[in-house]
Amino acid sequence: MSIVQRVLRKAESIKDHYFPIKEFDQATLPWIDKSNADIAGFLKKNPPRYDVPYDMADKLRSWEQNGYVVLEKIIPEEMIDNFWGDFQKLVQNPDKYDLSVRIDLDEFKPNQERNIKEFPKEALLGKYVKINDFHNSSVAGKKLMTHPYIVSFLEAIFNQKIVVMQSLVFMYGSQQPTHQDFPWVTAKIPSHLAAAWIALEDIKIDSGPLYYYIGSHKMPKFNFGSGILFKKDSTKSPLEFAQYLDQTCAEHQYPKETLLIKKGDVLIWHAALAHGGSMITNPEQTRKSFVCHYSTEQALPYHRNFVTQVPVKQDYNGVFIYNNPVFPQSEDVLK
């Protein structure tokens, strides 16, 4: 990257510090988030690249009104099983791989995020475990997260080149308090963010299923004291954020819905949809999930953790996936 580009990046950082973002920028807002979005007109000019098995117009209307869609039975079981087979190889032989894992247990403080080799094997099979960016190691993961039916919907809501931002693999429910994604998973344009939860098994009510507030993507933004993004100098805590979301959703009477989808179904949700993980009532019940975050090339032209480097990228179904510069030796080791 040139000196000029580095200076521009530094200038952007200084600007963000002194002039924090207070709202999504209307100039770069995805077309469907703007008032009076013409869905029929858009699809007439921009038909999907793939022949999808769902009604795109109906799904876009649901997205605009509710902040999420469920794409039913779009992922073949074989694709899921191949991916889960790669995951089993990982957790059964962690000493053979390099990738980042976070385990939110007190016993691992103060360094709860480490290379997978540094955690006891039995801990990797327990609760509060997040396997980060496993798609970089697993070709099956890359294929799964860029399935044509997922890509088609993402291209429709953004009308831009899609890039993969990050991924998480869970065996158990997260039990995470209510939150929105954009304050934490942030590209140059915070509104250019969507997430997909690919169900790797049928989700049971006692597994701590995901919940969300329907229509909450339109609610007023929370100010962390550093703008709408959470930063090192934020004066408001994640707990205060969660309390604000629950209270404001109740005031606006956004219905709270618990998601019980089936293996092969995919939930895609808006960057600003308020959601969280319910309490696990059966400690033995898993909630096998592959959660993927996506942005656009305009908003994320580089790997999210290496903004001054030219990324090494791969193309899957027209989606860019950036190689992980931290663990280049682990890229595509599971094929």
Overall strand count: 13
Q: How big is the Rg?
A: 19 Å
Question: Span from first to last CA?
Answer: 31 Å
Structural class: alpha+beta
What CATH architecture do you see?
Answer: Sandwich
Helix content: 25-40%
The poorly predicted ranges are none
**Count of helix runs:** 8
Please give the domain count: 1
CATH fold type: Jelly Rolls
Overall morphology: globular
- CATH homologous superfamily classification: q2cbj1_9rhob like domain
CATH class descriptor: Mainly Beta
Largest sheet: 8 strands, antiparallel
Beta content: 15-25%
Mean of all residue-level pLDDT scores: 94
**Helix-strand string:** HHHEHEEHEHHEEEHEEEEEE
Placed side by side, the strands forming the largest sheet appear as 1-9-6-11-5-4-2-3
InterPro entries: Phytyl_CoA_dOase-like (IPR008775)
GO molecular function: 2-oxoglutarate-dependent dioxygenase activity; iron ion binding
Keywords: Dioxygenase, Oxidoreductase
Cofactor: Fe(2+)
